[in-house]
Amino acid sequence: MKLTVEYSELSQKQKLRLLWNNFCDADPVPPEFADEMEEAGFIETAPVDEEALESPFAYERGLEPGGSMYVLTPAGRQALKGGDE
């Protein structure tokens, strides 16, 4: 059985769980994803650090010295674990 669900029908936690890895890999996600996750308190911007720059995928992800990147907040890490909907 195949189930199709519209993006707009998903909860913010479901969106985060489904799309966070794609977002981190610079794969396509809906354009509103980052804004919605930031508004939900699941992600925030942080300065790009040395650890991020040492990643073999830093260039693909658009990370550069002096830039910023999105990181999970404590609420975002909790939401990824699953649980209450």
Describe, in plain words, how this protein is organized in 3D.
This protein has helices at residues 12-24, 33-39, 50-53, 74-81; strands at 43-47, 68-72. It has one domain. It has a two-stranded antiparallel sheet. The protein has four helices and two strands. The mean pLDDT is 92. The protein is an alpha+beta fold. The chain starts with 11 loop residues before the first helix and ends with a helix. Helix 1 (12-24) packs across helix 2. The radius of gyration is 14 Å and the shape is globular.
Set down the secondary structure blueprint:
Blueprint: H1 12-24, H2 33-39, E1 43-47, H3 50-53, E2 68-72, H4 74-81
Antiparallel strand pairs: 1-2
Helix pairs in contact: 1-2
Total individual domains: 1
| Termini Cα gap | 23 Å
- The strand line-up of the biggest sheet is 1-2
Element string (H = helix, E = strand):
HHEHEH
